[in-house]
Amino acid sequence: MERAAAAVLPADVRDFLFGGSGAETTLDANRAAMDRVFLVPRVLRDVSRCTTGTTLLGRPARMPVAVAPVAYQRLVHPEGELAAARAAHAAGVPFTAGSLSSVPVERLTATGAAVWFQLYWPRASGHAFDLVTRAEDAGVEAIVLTVDVPWMGRRLRDMRNRFALPDHVRAAHLAAGTTAAHRAPAGPSSALAAHTDAAFSASLTWASVAALRERTRLPLVLKGVLAPEDAVRAVECGVDAVVVSNHGGRQLDGAVPSVDALPGIVAALGGRCEVLLDSGVRSGTDVLRALALGARGVLVGRPPVWGLAMGGEAGARRVLELLGDEFRDALGLAGCADVSAAGELRTLRR
């Protein structure tokens, strides 16, 4: 799917989706680090009824996977996030609607999918609370606050391409101030970076997290945590989960691979909240690796969008079906009859 999507997408859209920041060191390191994790399978266990079901944020999921937020999915298919949400619903996993979704959250929850709402903190904190209220009224099941984007990382592919949005793709949750995202810059720069800098705040702090915790009764998730100290602080602020994530290698280039940061955060939290892993997940074996290292589940971002580019809802659904098939296969071959047993596996690092 990755290769097929790369072959059909326009070059600038392909670079926007596939690229990372800086020299893309962290982008590449995410996969390299994942491939260094080796599982120690158990044998002579009854896996004749191998089941992949679990709960994420207290709600049932068919496998320990949620679809991560990816901005502007109408860039790759006319239905964009709408088709992707339907695919997630069919797969029985949560779908995360982004602040920069090109389809309104109300249409996404109407698909019947379990929808989480990802929030970038706007410059006006009142707008943040308005977005949360809108998402709550639409029926979302969790709020996912992204905390690693004070501004957009230097994504050199986008800068070289002078990347800007086509007129038919809009940020559905930002009614005003989106013109900059559609205006190609005069020199090497990214219109999306300029828009992000104008729309979102670089002064997000722990006080903002505490204020958001006070404003919503929904599960609150912090996405973009890599330091154990920050994970502990998050729990002290009352969050329900953290997502160990380096934003898919799209923010600080040189940041630690997410899977390398995961064990330290799991140890520091000691089960006080759920821990999810994001960045670099490409297979069912990767899902099992994350669980063996202590995660409750994973978020997967780019792969469903590759499927979306290839075949809309059917393509995104196929990606999630493949991920589920691979995970069940890995789970059973590792001697685990269910997801809880995966957390008991040992791992070795090459």
UniProtKB/TrEMBL annotation:
The keyword Iron does not apply. It comes from the Bacteria. Keywords: Flavoprotein, FMN, Oxidoreductase. The active site is at H247. FMN binds at P69, V70, A71, Q118, T146, K223, S245, D278, S279, G280, V281, R282, G301, R302. It holds the Pfam family FMN_dh. InterPro entries: Aldolase_TIM (IPR013785), Alpha-hydoxy_acid_DH_FMN (IPR012133), FMN-dep_DH (IPR000262), FMN_HAD (IPR037396), FMN_hydac_DH_AS (IPR008259). Glyoxylate binds at Y120, R155, H247, R250. Signal peptide: none annotated. GO terms for molecular function: FMN binding; oxidoreductase activity, acting on CH-OH group of donors. Residues 1-350 form the FMN hydroxy acid dehydrogenase domain. Gene3D superfamilies: Aldolase class I. Its cofactor is FMN. Belongs to the FMN-dependent alpha-hydroxy acid dehydrogenase family. This is Alpha-hydroxy-acid oxidizing protein.
